[in-house]
Design a protein that fits this description.
With 314 residues, the protein is of the alpha/beta class. Helix content is 45%, strand content 12%. The strands form 3 sheets. It has a 4-stranded parallel β-sheet with strand order 2-1-3-4, sandwiched between helices. The chain has a 4-stranded parallel β-sheet with strand order 8-7-9-10, with helices on both faces. A two-stranded antiparallel sheet has the order 5-6. Mean pLDDT is 89; it is low at 2-10, 21-36 and 132-143.
Length: 314
């Protein structure tokens, strides 16, 4: 009788222990499959390629960055469909450029708690533009340039500040990874500042040299590096018409530039026509969309080398 009671006691004890273990295992399983846990990469949506590059450099394996703009469209003027808008709404974090970039953002409902305006901290550095000219960029359709210049990242000191805003936004979503994000930012900022210093050294050789740019997207670039520029509204993939050539001639009469800076590789007919006016061509790619080759940093390094040709001693 005593042995029977002892066996029952052991059996009851074992059952309680097994129940506790089962409950613990169940909790582990439940929490391991919960969406949005710290072990999963943050789902980050961005409005341009520079922000995609910054987020990936800073976040590494801890982020999954989505940039749904087609390759042949200028992201500044892209309009997402309903499916893409829904994807932005579901993201963990939405990185914005600010300065009026991606006008569609102001027309749809996005969760404010998920949005991070990466240029908000330097709103006082925004550049106002004058006049509006309606034209098209590839698959983006007709548009007019806005009241604010928005290619902020071409001033590499501002690019570094935008990258810092990216690191802070990621840190708010994953506080336990703030040190990791800070290290990623420090490495990126160092490279951006190195390029900034290289550009300053190049342009300091001929600070007043007159230049013409194909499009009014170089405002922040020109201000930072004190470039003497005049704007055209030419597209790299389109041959200028007679009116556009006459506009160039009028500019050259008062602004004797010998170089024209293009956003992308121009058609040969444009290059030849410029040469007949005594003007050579280089490309300084703003890199708003994903490049065909390389990444943001390799494109910027090539831009610097292209710029060196303009300022080298004759």
């Amino acid at each position: 009788m005593c042995c029977l009671k002892f066996r029952k006691l052991i059996s009851t004890s074992n059952m309680k222990a097994l129940s506790r273990i089962a409950a613990i295992l169940l909790l582990v399983i439940v929490f391991s499959v919960q969406p949005g846990t710290a072990s999963e990469p943050l789902n980050v949506y961005v409005v341009n390629y520079p922000l995609k590059y910054f987020a990936e450099r800073i976040g590494g394996e801890h982020v999954r960055v989505e940039f749904p703009v087609p390759a042949d469209v200028d992201p500044a003027y892209w309009n997402p469909d309903l499916a893409n808008i829904a994807a932005y709404q579901k993201a963990d974090l939405i990185l914005l450029n600010g300065a009026g970039y991606a006008g569609w953002v102001a027309k749809v409902s996005l969760p404010r708690s998920k949005m991070a305006d990466t240029s908000k901290k330097f709103k006082d550095r925004y550049i106002s533009t004058q006049g509006a000219l309606t034209h098209s960029h590839g698959g983006a359709g007709q548009h007019a340039h806005e009241d604010l210049a928005f290619t902020t990242w071409l001033d590499l000191t501002l690019a570094a500040r935008q990258a810092e805003a990216v690191a802070l936004a990621l840190g708010r979503k994953r506080p336990e990874l703030r040190d990791t994000f800070q290290r990623g930012y420090n490495a990126l900022a160092g490279e951006l500042m190195d390029l900034d210093q290289r550009i300053q050294a190049i342009v300091s050789r001929k600070p007043s040299m007159p230049l013409i740019v194909s499009h009014p997207v170089y405002d922040y670039f020109a201000r930072r590096y004190e470039l003497n520029i005049e704007n055209l509204h030419w597209e790299p993939d389109q041959i200028p018409d007679g009116e556009q050539w006459r506009a160039l001639e009028a500019i050259l009469a008062r602004h004797p530039a010998r170089w024209l800076i293009w956003e992308g590789r121009p058609v040969q007919a444009s290059v030849d026509g410029l040469k007949s006016h005594g003007v050579d061509s280089i490309v300084y790619d703003p890199c708003g969309n994903v490049p065909d080759q390389g990444d943001f940093m390799t494109v910027m390094k090539q831009n610097v080398e292209n710029l060196r040709k303009v300022y080298q001693e004759q």
